[in-house]
Specification:
Rossmann fold, disordered N terminus, alpha/beta, globular, Alpha-Beta Plaits, four-stranded antiparallel sheet, 2 domains, single chain
């Protein structure tokens, strides 16, 4: 969260018991089933989001995590007014999103990594001019904003090229520029680095960090790349099967759900998995030809376990780190959030 942004008491996003249920028509097989379906349809109801409640303060950068089908995109669509909620209430910058009031739309933006708003065969600058006309941005202000954002994104020399000739990373940056031209207060970002290479991902992250600090923008970010979350967000919301499982500090989640350290070993000779199991949870696939291994060891047993490893195995190298966040979050999805210790 940007330290330059003054904290307000009222949240900029407030969702209370937000729910979305999709009715799906059910049809029996065969001709009879088809006729019955035509004249009298029956439905089953699939809950996509179930009683989700959270608040976001101005200037926060919040990660929104969950596996595919967890309800992340459905929640974002309700927050941006693209779909109606089936239940609960939501307010974003003081507006009810699904009313789609112009004053609300001027203060938000939604960027989806798999969607594009730029016109494929035209230079990006032409699409930017269309956006400027939609948001009634004066010419002088338009030029200033384009220049400032293009400099932050390192796009000055690319805006006059047809979009189809830009690299994937350059197109994503141009999409961000187009989405931020009206200088929204809230950025809803759904997989903004999807498909980008490592360098392009790092460039987008740096831009979002700089934009948050410069303008105090609030960011709600979903991503399957955990590097996006760890680089930008101190707070995370974890959703699974449409239910909010966790809302809090990312480090606190790791401490609570991963009370262990990872020990990486390089051995003089291959070691069977069964021989490593007494020392901790083996995280490798057990390749009999491998001289490297990873163990998860309870924090309180770390010193004793490392001493035993060095004494009982032929260890060439040993490194102790925190477990990869991807694996920790994956376990959260699989097992659920455990109760806090009393």
């Amino acid at each position: 969260m940007s330290t330059d942004v003054p904290t307000r008491l009222e949240p900029i996003i407030a969702a209370h018991n937000l729910s979305k249920v999709y009715p799906v028509a059910v049809k029996d097989p065969g001709v009879v089933g088809t006729l019955r379906h035509f004249f009298r349809r029956t439905y089953r109801h699939i809950p996509a989001v179930q009683s989700v409640s959270f608040q976001v303060q101005p200037g926060e950068m919040v990660g929104f995590l969950g596996p595919n089908g967890a309800g992340k995109t459905t929640t974002l669509k309700m927050l941006t007014g693209l779909i109606y909620p089936s239940g609960g209430t939501v307010q974003v910058v003081g507006h009810v999103p699904y009313r789609r009031e112009p004053a609300f739309l001027r203060q938000i933006t939604l960027v989806m990594g798999q969607k594009q708003q730029l016109i494929w065969d035209l230079p990006a600058m032409d699409s930017l001019r269309i956006n400027a006309a939609v948001y009634e941005i004066p010419e002088k202000e338009f030029r200033e904003r384009v220049g400032e954002l293009a400099e932050l994104l390192d796009l000055e020399s690319k805006l006059k090229q047809p979009v189809r000739k830009l690299s994937l990373g350059e197109r994503m940056k141009a999409e961000l520029l187009a989405a931020l031209l009206h200088r929204p207060q809230i950025l809803f970002l759904d997989e903004p680095t999807l498909g980008l290479d490592v360098n392009a991902q790092a460039g987008v992250r740096q831009f979002l960090r700089d934009y948050n600090r410069r303008y105090g923008a609030t960011v709600l970010l979903t991503s399957h790349y955990m590097a996006d979350i760890t680089a930008l967000c101190q707070r995370v919301l974890v959703i699974n099967a449409g239910q909010l499982m966790y809302d809090g500090d990312l480090e606190a989640l790791l401490e609570r759900f991963a009370p262990y350290r990872e020990v990486r070993l390089k051995l003089a000779r291959p070691c069977p998995v069964a021989q490593l199991q007494p020392y901790g949870e083996v995280r490798t696939d057990g390749d009999p030809g491998s001289c490297e291994a990873r163990l998860w060891v309870q924090r309180e047993q770390l010193t004793q376990t490392v001493a035993k490893l060095l004494a009982e195995l032929d260890v060439l190298d040993l490194t102790v780190t925190d477990p990869p966040i991807e694996e920790v979050i994956g376990r959260v999805f699989a097992d659920g959030i455990p109760s806090a210790s009393p």
